[in-house]
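Subject: sequence -> structure tokens, single chain

Hey, anyone have a minute? Need the predicted structure for the following. Not urgent.
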Amino acid sequence: MRITTADLWSPEPGRLLRWDVTATAPGRPVPLSLNQRNHLAVADAGEATVWLAAAFDVDGPIDVTALERALQAFVARHSSLQIGVERTEEGPVATRYEPGTLRWLVREEAHPDAVAGMRAAVAHALTEGCQPYGYAAFTPLAISRRQRSTVVLGMDHLLADAYSTAVVVDELAELYAAFRDGRGQPELPPAGCFAASVAADADQPVEVWHDDQRLRAWHDFARERDFTLPTFPLGLGVEPGERVAQASRVVELADAVTTDGLAVAARAASSSTYAVVLAALATAVRDLGGPERLDLLAPVQTRGERAGERAVGWYTTTVPVGIAADISRPGLAAAGESVRRGVGLGDVPLDQVIATLPEPLRPLRRDVFQVSWIDYRHLPGARQADARNAHHLSATTLADDLQLWVARTDAGLTARVRRPSTETAREVSDTLLDVWRGRLQQIASRELAPAG
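Reply:
Had a minute. Here:
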């Protein structure tokens, strides 16, 4: 699975097909998760919301009937894609529609004759179709070509997370191949129900966390930062309150051999590869004039037994992590402990964190400094991802802070960088990537000192 952004993806030209999906019968009300409510609050404030998309290749021109049947079967499996939201005077109201009542209409959207035109047409269709309000907040596309075609399913973030894109590729590819070859609908592993998970959480009595040490850890982190959210500590050429167009870059951080070396170093320090990558990042930031401890937010998976491995939905929460700029063996061990503590904080509902803070959190920027980690080797369809040319695409919007996504595959580590489109941000992020790579190489290629 390759991670990229809408402005960097290079789809070959072809016939661009788009499906419009509408609900033709009333549905039933369902609750919204905290993530979804916060996401809608951003839309209500007039901000552009974010979509993400899964893309993969299939042989030959698109069989429109087979792909439509595959899409219908996929939506029927995953409740998050059955949910639509409307604005009301009382606030957002979510409705779940029966898959059999949905109407699917396909049309040719465009037929660009160059990569740039196709890229722009796909981005436009997904931005237009993947909006959080109304039904559907997802948009299926296909680029039909004579030899090899591409299927794209874009989803507003309201409906899905990064993990979900792997599920989309694996299941939609299986369904399409089966219908195209006349084999009928294949039997897939059971899928977790996002709507049921949210409803179950909403029906649970509110648990009192006031004396829980994990809640206190959240409070301590906020208090140490004077109740401000983490921001990237180096200047990016953006004034307070200013936002500029987002710029993106996707780079290799480490090849497979180096990444294996990082994993060995992590095991030797009773740490994790993610924690080692963060320790190297913190050290690189310090090398460029940053602090001795790098504070950041990290998305954490909340998929459990109830969701399982086959669930499409927004199953993440955000936790604070502080990583010391220290790549000695004790430093890597400490980084591992910091990440473990941070992941443990994911059990504390964010609404309780916010409600119990003695002071409200104050965002210094619209964006927050976050470093995401996803190991695609353990996600559905990992073995077929390269053969399918699987991609995880993200929208491009506005930015005022640096955000990083690190992905591990069999080929090593890749970083996707989201930053403001200023010259300062470009210089800082490019230099940071170089220094970060160097620190990762240092960890992977030597016996770590016992301290310092």
